[in-house]
Design a protein that fits this description.
alpha/beta, 2 domains, four-stranded mixed sheet, 13 strands, globular, binds acetyl coenzyme *A
Amino acid sequence: MSVLRSVVTGVGGYLPETVVTNDDLSKIVDTNDAWIQERTGIRSRHRASEDQAVSDLAVEAAKKALAAAGRSAADVDLIVLATTTPDLTFPATAAIVQRKLGCPVGVAFDVQAVCSGFVYALTVADGFVARGHSKCALVIGAETMTRLMDWTDRGTCVLFGDGAGAVVLEPGEGQGTTADRGLLGFALRCDGTKQDLLYVDGGPSTTGTVGKLRMLGNQVFKHAVINISEAITAAANHAGVTIADIDWFIPHQANQRILHGVAHRLGLDESKVIQTVAHHANTSAASVPLAWAEGVSDGRIKKGDLLLIEAMGGGLTWGACVVRL
Ligand code: ACO
């Protein structure tokens, strides 16, 4: 049976130049390198310069993804951009990226699912590409999380960084089997009753301010491993594959302990896990495509590999996708 699939034909990532180490942060808040590394695995993170908006980060990642796919901005007819730190309340950052890249008139909008944003955005774009409504889609995760930090709160400000990652999706003919290239299955979840565990305390229709990130980290941690594992199993079932079939696990890079916990629970060998949290920290919606781009650029992830991606964030939201590259 012939089916249309959304095939990832290019991946790209961008990290701003400035690197902030744990020692740098210990000069601002009462923390230290040993605590941060032991509890999170994080050693450093990147921070956008004052004149860089999230759209600037997104544009750099998008250019690399388009080059990898052998496409140009002129080909792009859809941009789905996941961010929780948009340039402006409106228009959507996707529209700003469309203008900055010089893409023709097409479809462009943002998806807001915090750290799960890229996983959500990929499935949304799949809805266009696999139904023949897009020939060349950019799916972007881009964040300037450092702009949402309360720099007096050591429990959160050490955890986050800035960056962007992007993939190009194009339609491809498949046979309806697990050997097809493309997005093979996914599972998305949201539990709005857990809002108080992770949120930003501002917004246009409440305080009229941007607000700062608030998190009950240890409570989020408790939900993380169980929630993510359930969604991963559901996504694998939807795709018709088993965990043993997975070549590369690309998890949301929030905390090394969560990432190891999920891999262990699923019986996934650690050598199959792409890990960037040590030098990226948590870049929210950018974290999965950034890690994906790193795995491709260093030659580990290759065409034909079966990838499992997952993320969890504010909402609470979480989800997973199975993709054959
Ligand atoms: N440096 C030194 N000590 C610290 C720091 C710090 N940066 N931060 C907290 N502490 C202290 C606390 O004050 C506490 O001290 P106390 O025992 O005297 O009260 C102690 O360390 C333990 O604090 P916990 O919060 O219980 O530490 P925990 O081991 O849970 O680690 C962490 C905290 C790293 C935040 C962890 O809970 C975590 O990673 N949670 C999940 C985060 C996550 O995945 N978020 C989802 C995505 S984010 C998004 O969607 C935007």
